[in-house]
Amino acid sequence: xxxxxxxxxxxxxxxxxxxxxxxxxxxxxxxxxxxxxxxxxxxxxxxxxxxxxxxxxxxxxxxxxxxxxxxxxxxxxxxxxxxxxxxxxxxxxxxxxxxxxxxxxxxxxxxxxxxxxxxxxxxxxxxxxxxxxxxxxxxxxxxxxxxxxxxxxxxxxxxxxxxxxxxxxxxxxxxxxxxxxxxxxxxxxxxxxxxxxxxxxxxxxxxxxxxxxxxxxxxxxxxxxxxxxxxxxxxxxxxxxxxxxxxxxxxxxxxxxxxxxxxxxxxxxxxxxxxxxxxxxxxxxxxxxxxxxxxxxxxxxxxxxxxxxxxxxxxxxxxxxxxxxxxxxxxxxxxxxxxxxxxxxxxxxxxxxxxxxxxxxx
Length: 362
Ligand code: SF4
Ligand code: SF4
Hints:
With 362 residues, the chain is of the alpha/beta class. The chain is built from 19 helices and 7 strands. α18 links the parallel β6 and β7 (350-353). Mean pLDDT is 89; it is low at 1-6.
């Protein structure tokens, strides 16, 4: 047979759903499997990072259609915790792939119903401001931006207004302008990537200079759009300002654990700072699953409450076993998730944001 007679193998055309360099990077080694909380729940390959990347590839090449049930299920079952990133030898940026996946899949009518009102609520800066109007957060009353500005968050200013007050007690130099909206993380993680980036840019204009965020998820998203020189998470910023302080005597100090924020730890690489800060005011207790997602995961606890509770269970067991006085959090979603879990189990442990803990507000 001559070369002309041979039929070349047909290479499937890319559909342009994913950035090719991101999708091509996975070498299918499987190092990420033990780090994945959803794989730990099911033991099924498609619920692992490698399995999901293979689904993305099948979607990209048209081998699987958009409405394939496994594709839909796994795009939603994934926590988006990015625990698969730091363990990956090939540097796969899974978080970005997931954003592109949901941006394609959840565009329009396929977006989960429960997510829609959340996105609507935080879509307009005016709406976000009015949501927090009756709450006593740090940004009440108009204030001009300064060289370093505190981000008030969207749901955090409504649900946990004490957090921003505590942050300002600890750092009076933080300006807290009221004229600021949402950072766009919720949009970016739930199928509206362009809007999520636009909201982050608008927030960057409203808060010129350095932005300090008390929620790890917001800090990671904002840093991804505006750059990590401009955006700092609160513990990161406070630790850089103060350094390690002398610990108080051990006797009678509260036993305090930490729930890492996934995006703070896995996205920004910040995990040591909150631990060092906790050690200033209590005996720090490292829980075995401190670095593992608590199941809050942004909108996940609302969209998939049963899976979210299954992921949380292990954390509650560990908190109970360690008989903690306090479990500290550095993200609004973890705050809500752990508060509800601790209440449900009737544990004596208090759930407190790190800023509140350091300011002695609770
Ligand atoms: S995502 Fe990374 S760790 Fe997981 S299979 Fe691919 S290359 Fe390996
Ligand atoms: S983001 Fe989290 S849940 Fe999703 S594949 Fe990675 S480790 Fe698993």
